[in-house]
């Protein structure tokens, strides 16, 4: 038992948790190791040597920059769309009562529950029937379908913990709808929206399956990595890019965690 009176976890449980974490994260650590290896033909262990050459090679590859630019554009626009639509859906579902409300809630979260290949095939079929050519916008529409869910889940949870009496009090004091949203609602749901947006960005940035069906001849960074693994030219370059993808996706997730870990402390939630 610890000094604060709480019972400590058994050693076997700690060891099992440690082994589970190692099993999940050691392969990711290997990506970082192979990004600096001197061997460019195979994944030899242990690496024969280490070099920083591949960072320069990756920096000077225009195809990497093109793929990175496309991924950032898609993730940014998809996140903006998701934040707008997700917030509006969350406000409607959590603040009003109407026939079919639970059905609409189910339909909103359904895209992230379905296998990505089902979503990808459905979108590709819809674009073909509507005679819509594949472009950056077809990728964005595909990503927005599941990014909306992330924002919606964060926003609807925060809306439900925010007391409706705050909005009523604001209206009673003469505030209009915009002022109420800006000074009362937004401060209470702001961190949840920001966290949802960060998670949506990370989810869109490293998406592969739906992108495969909606990108046409274009290559986002994950698609570029997949093609390089199938037909490798310089294996360490792929690992350098994978290292960048890991960092770009992990940082927003960590930020979202720190933004929402005190999410139960909402103004007026106990009233």
UniProtKB/TrEMBL annotation:
Pfam families the record matches: BPD_transp_1
Gene3D superfamilies on file: MetI-like
KW Glycoprotein (keyword) present: no
InterPro entries attached to this UniProt entry: Bact_Polyamine_Transport, MetI-like, MetI-like_sf
Intracellular or extracellular location(s): Cell membrane
Membrane topology per record: Multi-pass membrane protein
Domain ABC transmembrane type-1, residue spans: 68-256
Highest taxon listed in the record's lineage: Bacteria
Swiss-Prot/TrEMBL keywords: Cell membrane, Membrane, Transmembrane, Transmembrane helix, Transport
Main location: membrane
Coiled coil feature spans: none
Annotated transmembrane regions: 12-36, 70-93, 105-126, 132-152, 240-259
Family: Belongs to the binding-protein-dependent transport system permease family. CysTW subfamily.
Protein name in UniProt: Spermidine/putrescine ABC transporter permease
């Amino acid at each position: 038992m610890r000094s604060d009176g709480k019972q400590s976890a058994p050693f076997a449980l700690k060891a099992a948790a440690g082994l589970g974490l190692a099993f999940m994260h050691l392969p990711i650590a290997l990506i970082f190791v192979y990004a600096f290896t001197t061997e460019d033909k195979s994944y030899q262990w242990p690496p024969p040597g280490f070099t920083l050459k591949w960072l320069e090679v990756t920096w000077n590859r225009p195809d990497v920059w093109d793929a990175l630019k496309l991924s950032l554009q898609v993730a940014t626009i998809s996140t903006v769309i998701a934040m707008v639509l997700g917030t509006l859906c969350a406000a409607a579902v959590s603040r009003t009562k109407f026939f079919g409300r639970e059905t609409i809630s189910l339909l909103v979260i359904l895209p992230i529950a379905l296998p990505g290949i089902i979503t990808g095939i459905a979108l590709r079929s819809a674009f073909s029937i509507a005679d819509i050519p594949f472009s950056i916008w077809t990728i964005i529409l595909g990503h927005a379908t599941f990014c909306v869910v992330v924002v919606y889940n964060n926003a609807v949870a925060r809306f439900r913990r925010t007391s409706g009496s705050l909005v009523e009090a604001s209206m009673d004091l003469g505030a209009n709808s915009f002022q109420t949203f800006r000074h009362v609602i937004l401060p209470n749901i702001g961190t949840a929206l920001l966290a949802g947006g960060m998670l949506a960005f990370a989810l869109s940035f490293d998406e592969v399956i739906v992108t495969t069906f909606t990108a046409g001849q274009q290559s986002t960074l994950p698609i570029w990595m997949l093609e390089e693994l199938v037909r490798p030219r310089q294996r360490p370059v792929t690992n350098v890019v994978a290292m960048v993808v890991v960092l770009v996706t992990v940082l927003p997730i960590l930020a979202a965690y720190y933004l929402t870990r005190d999410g139960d402390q909402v103004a007026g939630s106990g009233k």
